[in-house]
Amino acid sequence: MYFNVSELDQKLAEKIKEKNLPGVSVCIRGPEGVILEKGYGYADGNMTRLVDGDTIYGIASLSKSMTTLACAILATEGKLSFDDPVYKYFPNFEVPGNPKDSVTLRHLAMHTAGIPPMEPLEWSIAMNTSGRNSRWLREMRRTAINKMDNIHQIIDYIAEGRYPTLGGPGEYMSYSNEGYAILSYVVDMAAGVTLEEFLKERVFEPIGMNRTVIDYDCSEAKAISGGNITQLFGYDDDGKLYADDNWSILPPFRGCACVKSTAHDMARYYQCLSNNGIIDGRQAIPSKAVEILVGDEFPEQEKAFYCLGLNKRVKNGHVICEHSGGLHGVSSFGGFFKGENYGFSVLCNMSEEDVEDLGWMMYNMVMGRPLEEDHYWLHPTGTDFTQPEMLVGTYRCHEGIPVDIKVYIKDGKLMVADSVGEMTTKYCGETWFQAFRQEPVPAKRLRFWVRNGKAWGVTVYTRLYQRVDD
């Protein structure tokens, strides 16, 4: 199959420059082998070290599917079941208001355990990472109830129920890093070895991910890097770009966000999942484990559906499984076309930047579509929501410093405001909306949850904010 790689290369370079990203590495692998593997920009603040496909980056939440893959492999061996109640592994675990027996490993993996957005990951980073100073960090250290450096502190905090439980298990999806922290330790117990050892022996080595490691302080990643590891870029409180080597340390969130890897290795990982666990003609991962992650149990539709550590959606006839991630000095995106033997990865060394559009370009080339075609799966209906008064109110997320979304009616139109400013909305069916600061790119995706004629919550992308006004 012919691919216009030179056009993609040019468009990627233009987009990376437009977004002012310091360093980006990308890789596409398919049945043909490596289709594109390239670095753009620099790995250090002095702009002396170029990035390439073997530059080590953090991958943040791309780590999550590796944790669920470990669970899936163990499930194929009868060592655990995703239907196991969490309390089987942690007797003190509970989501207040829900029976302990009803919350399973599957609910943790799908972010449907009823756990509301909360602070432990942010506290863990602030209390265990040295060398940084910012308004955010000072506030997190001021509010932290402990160092959040072991799993039992997280479990105890969930059980305290400081914020209302979202609902019954399986009822609502709200992204929960805490759930994946717990799954990391479930792997330890079920496997009889640590998650770190299990991933190395059963995932990284079989797939040929020779420059990938899970460590909580980056010491092992630095040791295997041969110096080809990126610094971490961000903007300080005054808006000035800086680079440092202060990797986020968040000990109990190992399988949630602590893998370091390369674009080369991550494309191999996703290609292996795309090909039912086969890479280079070898069955590196049990095909049944891949089926557990993203198989026929989960719907195939245009709207993204969160499976076990990966979103799944359909675009132009292709079933796409993917995830994004972000931390200090980390912005990541990766995915694969299910059953087609194509894997894609984008790794960037800028803090919390959206790099999905770079991945979309890569998808589009393989699909034979215009490179800059978007992949938004929510579409305005061209009509107005008939009862906007049901949605008016203020909604809050407690993940880190509390964040509010205010919803109100202005000149007959439903409006949304956050700390950045006011947004217009477009109705997208049911109780879905897109919010725009400036068209045509949506700033937020919203889904309201209405009970007894009044919205009690709104999902903003993947976090469910709860109403705080009367």
What does this entry show, briefly?
It comes from Lutispora thermophila DSM 19022. Residues 8-353 form the Beta-lactamase-related domain. The protein is of the alpha+beta class and 470 residues long.
Structural commentary:
This is CubicO group peptidase, beta-lactamase class C family. Residues 8-353 form the Beta-lactamase-related domain. Pfam families: Beta-lactamase. The protein is of the alpha+beta class and 470 residues long. Among the domains are: 5-58 and 214-281 and 313-367, 3-Layer(aba) Sandwich (Beta-lactamase); 388-467, Beta Barrel (Lipocalin). Helix content is 28%, strand content 25%. The chain has helices at 5-18, 63-76, 105-109, 120-128, 135-143, 151-160, 177-191, 195-207, 219-225, 254-257, 263-274, 287-294, 356-367; strands at residues 23-30, 33-41, 57-58, 213-214, 232-235, 241-244, 259-261, 278-279, 282-283, 305-306, 311-315, 318-327, 330-337, 342-348, 393-397, 403-410, 413-417, 422-427, 432-436, 444-451, 454-460, 463-467. The strands form 5 sheets. The protein has an 8-stranded antiparallel β-barrel with strand order 15-16-17-18-19-20-21-22. It has a 7-stranded antiparallel β-sheet with strand order 2-1-14-13-12-11-10. A 3-stranded antiparallel β-sheet has the order 3-7-4. The termini are far apart. The mean pLDDT is 97.
Major sheet: order of its strands?
15-16-17-18-19-20-21-22
Give the termini distance in whole angstroms: 59 Å
The strand count comes to 22
The amount of helix comes to 25-40%
In the CATH classification, which architecture of the domain at 5-58 and 214-281 and 313-367 applies? 3-Layer(aba) Sandwich
Strand content: 15-25%
- CATH topology title of the domain at 5-58 and 214-281 and 313-367: Beta-lactamase
Class per helix and strand makeup: alpha+beta
- What's the alpha carbon Rg, rounded to whole Å? 21 Å
Shape designation: globular
Q: Helix count, per DSSP?
A: 13
What summary fits the major beta sheet? 8 strands, antiparallel, barrel
| Low-pLDDT ranges | none
The CATH class designation of the domain at 5-58 and 214-281 and 313-367 is: Alpha Beta
Summarize model confidence as the mean pLDDT: 97
CATH homologous superfamily caption of the domain at 5-58 and 214-281 and 313-367: DD-peptidase/beta-lactamase superfamily
Protein name: CubicO group peptidase, beta-lactamase class C family
InterPro entries: AmpC-like (IPR050491), Beta-lactam-related (IPR001466), Beta-lactam/transpept-like (IPR012338)
Pfam family, one: Beta-lactamase
Domain Beta-lactamase-related: 8-353
